[in-house]
């Protein structure tokens, strides 16, 4: 197979997954789904597209919020938003992140539910930016103190891609813990 004519996003996804392997190996719990994801690429010789989002969450005492940064492949998010809006959405065109900010915010507000210490907390979508072939989202979850327990339901892209995995890394009180939401397990929780 030659490289001529292949979509550059195809290669970026594989590079992204390859770079994520060390992070996956540092997860605070070992889950069969994570192990499968980590090793599947090294044993498979056939092309396979992965559907994976990675988010990082930390507590910021100055603003009194959990701050979440999530990364999604642009083409996957464009597919989902296009289906939802019933129009062809291209996020990479100039001005379109601003034009579609409300649509993106509404989508993630409907797909992300967070309970902190047993209380459902509304999320605040701040905005996004494009980095290479990914859309980086910035979300805040207002809480008065560092949480002891977090329960999350994160179903972004799962309505279109049944293999979608949404991985969320937390760093609270110096502890690192990871949640993984998949179609068969859309809710996960962690205690600190």
UniProtKB/TrEMBL annotation:
Q: Tell me any Pfam family this protein matches.
A: DUF6702
Fetch the InterPro entries from UniProt: DUF6702
Its name, as the record gives it, is Peptidase E
